[in-house]
Amino acid sequence: MDLKYTLWGKKITFPSDILAADMSILLFLLIGVGLLTYFKKWKWLWGWLTTTHHSKIGILYLTAGGAFFLRGGLDALIMRVQLALPENQFWVFQGEKYNQMMTTHGTTMIFFVAMPLLIGLMNVAVPLQIGARDLAFPYLNALSFWLFFAGGSLVNISFILGGSPTAGWTAYAPLALKEFSPGPGNDYYALGLQIAGIGTLLTAINFLVTILNKRTKGMTLTRMPLFTWSTLVTSLLILFAFPALTVALLLLSFDRLFGTSFLSADAGNALIWQHLFWIFGHPEVYILILPAFGIFSDVISTFAKKKLFGYTSMVFAIVLIGFLGFMVWVHHMFTVGLGPASNAIFAISTMSIAVPTGIKVFNWLFTLKGGVIRFNTAMLYALSFIPTFVMGGVTGVMLAAAPADYQYHDSYFVVGHFHYVIVGGTILGIFSGLYYWWPKMFGFLLDEKRGKWQFWLFAIGFHLTFFPMHIMGLMGMPRRVYTYLEDSGLGTLNMISTIGAFLMGLSVLFFIYTVYWSCRNGVRDASGDPWDGRTLEWAIPSPPPEYNFARRPFVRGVDAFWKEKMEGDGTFQPAEKLKPIHIPPSNVQPMILSGIFFMTAFGFIFDWNLVKIGGGILILGMLIWRSFTDKGGHFITAEELAEREERKGGR
Amino acid sequence: METTQTGSSPLQEMQREKAKDKVLAMWFFISAEVVIFGGLFGVYLTLKSHTGSGPSPEGLFELKETAVSTIVLLSSSFTCAMAGYFLQGKTKKKMILMLLFTLLLGMGFLGLEIKEFLTYVEKGYRITDSSFLASFYLLTGTHGSHVLAGCIWMLVLLFHLLREGLNEDTSLKIKVFSLYWHFVDVVWVFIFTVVYLFGKAG
Ligand code: HEM
Ligand SMILES: [Cu+2]
Description:
heterodimer, A: mainly alpha, Cytochrome C Oxidase, Chain A, two-stranded antiparallel ribbon, 4 strands, 66% helix, B: mainly alpha, Four Helix Bundle (Hemerythrin (Met), subunit A), 83% helix, binds protoporphyrin IX containing FE, binds copper (II) ion
């Protein structure tokens, strides 16, 4: 099925898989352009592309993260088909091509799916939860989004432009160096992650300043909802972890693009990569799980109709986990040969994380105990997370036993472990958060009946896929292989795993259908408080007006809204007079600036000096331009505000 | 949280909030930079002995010349602090003068660094020649590019100042900038000590 032709004496081949990718991209583009033109939505699109408003940027993050989820999921299904049968030959996905799928899958899922989806939910919910009007730096927020999008596109586009990275999402040196990965794939990896990483770091700073400086009166740190707390700690983790990745990627880029030998096995030191990568990488897994913890805490206390059990210890546990997250990176390197003393220290520090994690699990259980539980989809996701995550934690502690890890390391057991924590923790958290905050974002509820179907499909698919992986690992199946022998006895388990993967894929498609269905027929959220909520975001209409709170509320306790409902009429004492509110302007600069980053990366990958230097100058120029245009926006006057609030029925 | 001062316009109030936010953001940014430079120091210390067929630290550095650039850069920190002092006194002319001095000193440092690199390259010590050289160039080069960024930033600042004069907006910009500049200077003190002094001491 390969397409071959000669152009100006040059032989050009399009392998069938790339051809298929090209066609589907073309098809989607055409459909998109067609729909936009047909419904006359170009202006509407422009509004979204230039927005600087937190909830819109949140939705952008969710959309882009969702799109990457489909790509990463497709990779996963391709891998699972290839592995379904022993000595299988599915299409062209063996050897190097399999490595490309595997690497893109992992990289995409961690950096361009899990993180942006969480950051999207943070953007939607955090300002509302603390009674703020927006993030501290709206322009920067848009820039963060576009940088993430540029980086993600770079890694994803590599497939049709000369080859994807092949060295795994961990890109270990010297495997990831030119010597062993000669194609441009790992250049895309290094530059894409670097660009997206800048965006992530800027987001973290933005959230830190927002949460520390922009809380409304009475919203002390000790009264913040758990999701906001976890966002705060996560942002701190990003702040200290991502720079380590920056340095690692810098070394990798220099080695690959400029011929240095930082990470080569003989002239340099390949272990530098592993240390830097895991100094970033271990905190990264907590960057992925802490926000999910926050979501579950909010969801569970809302749908159990109870104050979260042990609020203070919950906060303390998040902070402690965040801190310990930086102390344990060597547990990824037990088999490298750093010596028994080092291994012992890191084994024990790793296991100690189980203590605060256990505290959290018990607090969730105690919150449920005696609660008036409503089993909606958001809650189902939260409840099903508890056993999966406990299991992931248990296998984690098993892995943390250094001598045993010599057995498990680089086996399918590890794959089982981290999918139980990342899918069974983070992804379930994201789904829970989506069902929970959906009405706040869009003004209608996701349909419960369809939602529950979607949940069960996902939950069953999840366990079918990942549980057998533990056993396969113990039976000796290594990770990152594209096939196995007939008589290894791994065939049945692999087949089960593949079936599970397709159930999950089906569930994701079903989710899209549920969104579509609910958009047309779903229940409108007229009150703004569909769940009888406890925190501030439910005290304003859905979707919120652009200024969120006409008058910012005065907060009197944890679960601020609930307190007002119980002790009064459910309205807040305002913390301020009606006064003019500043609305920052829309801005195209973030999109353009990120576009230039994207373009400049190609200059480096293909060694075009003009593009490199030109890109650098343009980036600088954009920054200077920004410094002359960082004014503007408009004020909504007090009278206008009063009028708008009146029209909504005097909330 | 918001401190509502009575008798100020919404615009002023917004600017006051913005000022607090920006200064805090700069501190966080600097924390991240500390990790970046920490990582680069770690890389340098690990690879310092990987000299291959290239020079060793002892053989490479000229302490006298780096002492000069150190003095140049540290005086720029001093003039930058003076600029901050005049900023509080609202004496615009002196402030601009001090900022100009800072800019000149910063550019002087850059010139000296470029000269240093050029002499090394002339001797045939390039970034690809040994891991020690690579890590040295990467660490000092990252610092140097921070100085360069600071110089460009200063130029833009001066332009703003000449156009708009001294107002809440421009003085905030200077405050944020001076945080950055002092940080860049402090990093150099570490580079001078760890790379040059210890390197020479062997
Ligand atoms: C009690 C908690 C946990 C413990 C004790 C633990 C322990 C470990 C250990 C020792 C390894 C290394 C195994 C090996 O490569 O030989 C590992 C791998 C991994 N863990 Fe965990 N873990 C825990 C929680 C988590 C969480 C919460 C996440 C993510 C949200 C996570 C994600 C991962 C990932 C992605 C890997 C594989 C990294 C790779 O590609 O090599 N873990 N875990
Ligand atoms: Cu880890």
